[in-house]
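WARN retry 2 of 3 for item q-0093 after timeout on previous attempt; input resubmitted unchanged.
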Amino acid sequence: MSSPAPVFDNPDIWRAAALARPAGRALPSGHAALDAQLPGGGWPVGALVEILQAHSAQNEWRLLLPALAACGTGPVVLVGAPHMPFGPGLSAQKLAPERLLWIRAVEPAARMWACEQALRCAPVEAVLGWLPQARADQLRRLQMAASEHGKLLFVMRPARAQ
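OK item q-0093 returned
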């Protein structure tokens, strides 16, 4: 009489360790300590990366600039950015200012629409959206578009959105 197969060999059982594995490719963040902690060793391409911060400042730029500069030569779309980017500062960090498309959308629905359309645009390398009022279903829709089109997607939200 043979012994039954171990329960853990059942493909219907979900394992928490699966969360640590990247679903697709990753782009190095440009920060070695951060890459060591991120699954796949960098920012996931085709997924939503949510950046929560107490104040909408320019800390996101220091975090994201190295990866944005290295992600290719196509456009980087900014939707609802609180401040106009400073071109010489971007150039100093190896991100050509002419790659940026800055969309001034005020209404939350317009910001969501602009992000989704940018994710569907073939030449776009990355989309950065400042979406303080986004709902979970809206974020899921953006995540699906990023996945379908293989784009970098960063969403900046207030820490209270957690």
